[in-house]
Design goal:
Structural class: alpha+beta
Number of helices: 10
Mean pLDDT: 94
Largest sheet: 4 strands, antiparallel
Shape: elongated
Radius of gyration: 27 Å
Distance between the termini: 8 Å
Length: 417
Amino acid sequence: MTMPRLRFKAEDGSTFTVWDNKVLSEVASMHARIGWQNLRTDEFLDSGDYLLITGTDFQNGIVNYTPCHYVDQWRYDQDLKIQVRNGTVLVTKDGTLGKVAIVKDLPKPATLNAGVFAINPLQGSKLLQEYLYYWLSAPMLMHYARAMSSGGTIKHLNQSILVNFPIKVPCIEEQRKIADLLLAVDEVIAKQQAEVTAWKLRKKGVAQRLFSQEVRFKADDGSDFPEWSLIHLAEIGRLQSGYTFSPKYQGHHDKPIDVYKVADMNLAKNSKEMMLANNTIDTAIASLMSARPITEPSIIFAKVGEAIRSERRRIARKPFITDNNMMAFIPSPNYHFGFCYWLLQSIPFAPHAQSGSPPSLTATIINDLTAEIPSSIEEQRKIADCLDAFDDVIAKAKTELELWRELKRGLLQQLFV
């Protein structure tokens, strides 16, 4: 391995010693819950004295203990090697592979669920836990794992891969400098993430107060707006369901009509308004599909499956259709479009879904939903402008957060590669 491009100097300005080239098994132990010890679902407890840590509990490089289940003491005592302590580095080996967390502020004794490695420096290895955490967090681990797998695909991060994973080990002092720098960046990232979360909560609280009419805007002349009216959603817009989207029409990316699927709402640029689509069509394909593209500003949402429970709404302004797992709501021009978007955000659809496998929403269900709305389009505009302003602040905070995350990714590359 080549030496990193970014190196620290010692306090006296001298160069630190050359890094030692090791493999992970030379400097750390790796243990996971073995197959015969796997837990049954009925052994997951909602409370107790012994935490059970799962890979889904990892959050931004640490363990979020709030969603953790618990186990009985005999399950905790069953395997000393997977009892974790502060400083233990955890790596997921199944599911979402290669997620890394370091255990901090452990509130209770804890053991591991299946699918997670506990990695600890060996005694006398001169390896800091924090340095180990950041080394494993860098992209090299999954690059190495894929390189070691046939065909470049990997379904499990096996111990046979980890034991031979290369690791460069500087002297303790340089390890500490590297870990301290990355920790400082992580602390900024955590504060920025907390700011994003705080603004989202503020927006949620304001939206609740506005739509419950606990807080009302005044007209520009200081007068009160008229009372709100109870309406059915069918009175303020129309619905259009999606179409069967055959694979033979999929795969185009440069056509003028977007085709939105539920997964498209997950794209980073589609967090509020649909800017990208994984598939596009033209009028010829639309005709073959017997599809009528929507050209009016609309609000789209999932109508089939577990995606209903996410309660996501997205604005769509470009010509589009949806597949048959989605539905579009096209507001009447007699109502403020932005207000209609926030109105649909405020109404939960999931409780009204038809039970079944999968659950589903129909046009009749959506049309029959009721809500109180302002009679004045000016009050509708003020509500939309207020909530849009929150989104603008959140977007700026997210941009700052991503800049810090990008800086960390760059540092990991410079410090370790």
